[in-house]
């Protein structure tokens, strides 16, 4: 296979040149160092294969719309806010003992037993897809899968410009967030239950008769994004997995809201 033919096949599959794909992967790995290390921007750029900080800044701004320093600053602010958010710790929750105590004797017959049959739902709803990019949520989801018989994960906004941004001044898309999310679900043996349309939360917030796909102003743009997403999935994952996926198109109720709630 010649270099020219390989480049053509690669671009047809990934909607970008091979060099652009390599730079996107470099930036994706550099993001981790910007968030979690104290290395300088120049050192991070050189460590991830960029010739200098200026080239790194150029590609990073094209991808994220901000400089690496701005990205690091914003990430630190988000981390600080997360730390300041009160966390519920069951060890710090105490019962109010200022009540009248009552003693009772209870006798339980354990001579015969019956196996308890769990009737648990096999699907959980995680809301918007960006939740999957949170490290703390990834840990919670991992623990949940270990303890409960979860099989499907319902996701909203997976196929949206928030998760699959278009590359600046190009026709390709950036799939780093999609790759991270799907790799997590595949690792946990979960099957995506993908919501394609406008979700119920957005409907309640912006009740309107106009149908708009999430993330794009026209159906045509959404269809282009959907086509690119499907091409990416079918070239990166096994059919035995993605053939089990479920796609849902949520329809707003025909009745007005005041049929169900008092405004």
Shape: extended
Write the CATH architecture name of the largest domain: Alpha-Beta Barrel
**Termini Cα gap:** 65 Å
Number of structural units classed as domains: 2
CATH topology of the largest domain: TIM Barrel
Rg over CA atoms: 24 Å
Strand element count: 4
Q: Which strand-content bin applies to the residues?
A: 5-15%
What structural class should be given to the helix and strand makeup? alpha/beta
Order of helices and strands: HHHHHEHEHEHHHE
Unreliable stretches (pLDDT < 50, length at least 5) are 84-97, 200-217
- Residue-averaged pLDDT: 76
Could you explain how this protein is built, in words?
- The protein has helices at residues 3-14, 18-36, 41-47, 53-64, 68-84, 135-147, 176-187, 200-205, 219-236, 239-242, and strands at 123-128, 152-156, 191-195, 246-248.
- Strand 2, helix 7 and strand 3 form a beta-alpha-beta unit.
- With 263 residues, the chain is of the alpha/beta class.
- A four-stranded parallel sheet has the order 1-2-3-4, with helices on one face.
- The longest helix has 19 residues, at 18-36.
- Mean pLDDT is 76; it is low at 84-97 and 200-217.
- The chain folds into two domains: 3-83, Homeodomain-like (Arc Repressor Mutant, subunit A), CATH 1.10.10; 123-259, Alpha-Beta Barrel (TIM Barrel).
- It is 46% helix and 7% strand.
- It is extended and about 80 Å long.
Keywords:
263 residues, 4-stranded parallel sheet, 46% helix, Arc Repressor Mutant, subunit A, 10 helices, alpha/beta, single chain, TIM Barrel
Topology:
Elements: H1 3-14, H2 18-36, H3 41-47, H4 53-64, H5 68-84, E1 123-128, H6 135-147, E2 152-156, H7 176-187, E3 191-195, H8 200-205, H9 219-236, H10 239-242, E4 246-248
Parallel strand pairs: 1-2, 2-3, 3-4
């Amino acid at each position: 296979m010649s270099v020219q033919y390989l480049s053509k096949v690669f671009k047809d599959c990934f909607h970008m040149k091979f060099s652009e794909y390599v730079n996107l992967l470099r930036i994706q790995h550099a993001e981790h160092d910007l968030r979690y290390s104290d290395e300088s921007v120049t050192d991070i750029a050189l460590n991830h294969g960029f010739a200098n900080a200026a080239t790194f800044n150029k590609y990073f701004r094209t991808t994220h719309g901000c400089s690496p320093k701005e990205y690091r600053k914003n990430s630190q602010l988000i981390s600080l806010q997360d730390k300041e958010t009160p966390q519920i710790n069951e060890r710090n929750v105490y019962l109010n003992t200022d009540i009248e105590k009552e003693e009772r004797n209870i006798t339980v017959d354990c001579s015969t037993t019956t196996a308890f049959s769990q009737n648990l739902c096999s699907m959980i709803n995680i809301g918007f897809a960006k939740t999957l990019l949170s490290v703390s949520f990834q840990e919670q989801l991992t623990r949940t899968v270990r303890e409960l018989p979860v099989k499907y994960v319902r996701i909203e906004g997976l196929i949206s410009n928030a998760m699959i941004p278009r590359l600046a001044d190009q026709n390709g898309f950036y799939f780093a967030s999609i790759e991270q999310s799907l790799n997590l679900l595949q690792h946990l043996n979960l099957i995506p239950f993908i919501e394609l349309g406008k979700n119920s939360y957005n409907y309640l917030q912006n009740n309107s008769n106009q149908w708009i796909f999430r993330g794009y102003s026209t159906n045509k743009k959404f269809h282009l994004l959907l086509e690119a997403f499907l091409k990416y999935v079918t070239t990166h994952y096994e059919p035995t997995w993605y053939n089990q996926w479920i796609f849902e198109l949520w329809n707003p109720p025909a009745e007005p809201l005041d049929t169900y709630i008092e405004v």
